[in-house]
Amino acid sequence: MGKRHKNSRLWAVALGLLALAALCVSAAAQENTAKYWIAKGDDLFFNKSNPLEALESYEKAIQINPDNMTAWNGKSMVLDTLSVQTYSKILNLSETKLAKNPQDIEALQTSAMALASLGNREESNQFLKKAIDVYDQEIKDNPKNATAWFLKAGLISILNGSEEAISAYDKVIELNGSKMIDALITKGNILLNLGRYNESIDTIDKAIQLDPENPSVWYEKATYYNVLGKYNESLDAYEMITKLEPEKASAWLFKGNVLKALGRQTDADAAYAKAKELGHQE
């Protein structure tokens, strides 16, 4: 009887261990399903007010099933919440800075950005106008302040549209300072978007003449020809870009796209492979 009792206990322990193992396997199996991580994300977000960990859960669900719309919706919901919290924090910080200095340009511009992101365009525009006023004062104090002209032009473009900003960019170009190339590139892009193609390419070519080893001007030229559907000319620009930035994955990716548009699939695949080798992830 003693031996039988001992054997019974051993069987009980063994069965218990098997049951525990089965539970562990079951739990592990559950953790390998998108449904599990979505439910965990929902619990963390709605019941435990922990958006960061909820985001991690939705991300794991997406890794398991990249086409799971519920997981993507959960991720989007969390990111929206985090964005609102972030922008609210930015506004609070900016408000504190502006209380000390109403002309704090960083706080004015940051407030405008945060309010626009939250959908409050009217109040955002008020901060933009105040920021422009600050730059106007800087320009009044020093009419040759090219940086102030350049930054003012960017705000005018947001507030009143790109065309009104062109005269400010022209002033930057006239001053021939450190922001001249940036002004030419931006002006060229504005003219392209306005459909003023001849003026656009003239502006871009002027930037290239002044700074031929600046990849940004060649990107702008490539974009110009892409818009017009002139892919051979665009390819010439990307050839230059990949010479200037041979280790930049995006340069090879864009070059591959142009080669593909030209029907040169073998060359396009080689460019895509180079982009992947440099770290591009599809």
TrEMBL record:
One matching Pfam family: TPR_11
Keyword Repeat: yes
SMART domains to which the protein is assigned, alphabetical: TPR
UniProt entry tagged with the keyword Heme: no
InterPro entries per the UniProt record, alphabetical: Prenyl_trans_a, TPR-like_helical_dom_sf, TPR_rpt, Ycf3/AcsC/BcsC/TPR_MFPF
Gene Ontology MF annotations: protein prenyltransferase activity
TPR repeat residue numbers: 181-214, 215-248
Keyword list, A-Z: Repeat, TPR repeat
TM helices/strands, residue ranges: none
Protein name listed in UniProt: TPR-repeat protein
Species of provenance: Methanothrix soehngenii (strain ATCC 5969 / DSM 3671 / JCM 10134 / NBRC 103675 / OCM 69 / GP-6) (Methanosaeta concilii)
